[in-house]
Design goal:
Blueprint (H helix, E strand, L loop, with lengths): L11 H20 L7 E5 L2 E4 H17 L4 E4 L3 E3 L9 E9 L1 H5 L6 E8 L2 E9 L4 E6 L3 E4 L2 E2 L12 E4 L9 H11 L3 E3 L4 H9 L5 E7 L1 H13 L3 E2 L4 H7 L1 E6 L1 H14 L2
Parallel strand pairs: 3-5, 11-12, 11-13
Antiparallel strand pairs: 1-2, 3-4, 5-6, 6-7, 7-8, 8-9, 9-10, 13-15, 14-15
Helix pairs in contact: 1-2, 4-8, 5-6
């Protein structure tokens, strides 16, 4: 157990831990009163709720007041630059509620996500599941943790040794998910989907799942979880973070014993 992470970030990480806890409490209050929740449809299978907007606003205002020189990128509020319009060395990447479709349906599989990027490297990531009171943390060069206790990826050597999480969205290539699921099953595996990519990646880091595959995710959905998998001893596809912040990217993250298999299956599914 590590009580305090020593990062050259002027207290940003410790502050983010307190912010995500408060944001989780706010989101949970909305979740406990779904009958009063205002929900909008952004596109096909793409929802946004009053909770998403208010939780993101809370996170933005909290981080903005504490670190006005930092850039903030979020799912609902877009990209906000520092007051002086100078490019900051630090970028916050936030998803107020990952798994909105679950959230608005009363399914307890959603989370709040904050990632901290420094000079185009992901320095730290936080994923909070308020329902289960589980805080997943990933710190570059330090490790990954669940409620402050170290976590590690699965030791599985075969797809038949666990479940592979899959994701898709309205940005996925037509037919991708059908091919991906069939290929996993054909190789003796079991697929898992909970409609929260961030939470699934946290589960990979914790060894609950053996891997994750999706042909495209936005930065706020996966940077935190991807770092956690890496710091928990897993493998990921290395990416240019500056490009990912703008356009998102493909995500393959897994335990070392099955990473090559999942990467190969993902390649085939995307053809």
């Amino acid at each position: 157990m590590i009580d305090k992470y020593r990062l050259d970030d002027d207290g940003r990480y410790e502050f983010a831990v307190s912010v995500i806890r408060e944001a989780g409490d706010l989101a949970l209050r909305f979740f406990d009163n779904l009958k009063d929740l205002v929900i909008e449809k952004k596109g096909h299978q793409d929802l946004v709720s009053q909770a998403d907007k208010e939780v993101e606003l809370f996170i933005r205002e909290s981080l903005g007041e504490a670190f006005p020189e930092d850039q903030i990128i979020g799912e609902e509020g877009g990209n906000s630059m520092p007051n002086d319009s100078q490019k900051s060395e630090f970028v916050w990447v936030i998803d107020p509620i990952d798994g909105t479709a679950n959230f608005v349906s009363g399914i307890p599989a959603w989370c709040v996500v904050i990632a901290l990027v420094h000079k185009n490297s992901v320095l730290a990531g936080l994923i909070l599941d308020p329902v289960r009171n589980e805080l997943f943390e990933g710190v570059a060069g330090v490790g990954s943790f669940l409620n402050h206790k170290p976590i590690y990826v699965s030791k599985s050597k075969s797809l038949s040794d666990g479940s592979v999480a899959v994701g898709f969205s309205n940005r996925s290539k037509p037919g991708f998910i059908n091919r991906l699921v069939n290929l996993i099953v054909d190789d003796g595996g079991v697929f898992y989907r909970n409609a929260s990519g961030a939470l699934s990646l946290a589960y990979v880091a914790a060894g609950r799942l053996i891997g994750y595959s999706e042909d495209h995710m936005n930065a706020w959905d996966y940077l935190a979880g991807q770092l956690m998998v890496k710091e928990a001893g897993g493998q990921i596809e290395e990416q240019d973070i500056s490009s990912v912040l703008v356009s998102g990217g493909r995500v393959v993250a897994a335990a070392p014993g099955v990473f090559d298999d999942i990467q190969k299956i993902t390649d085939h599914a995307m053809k």
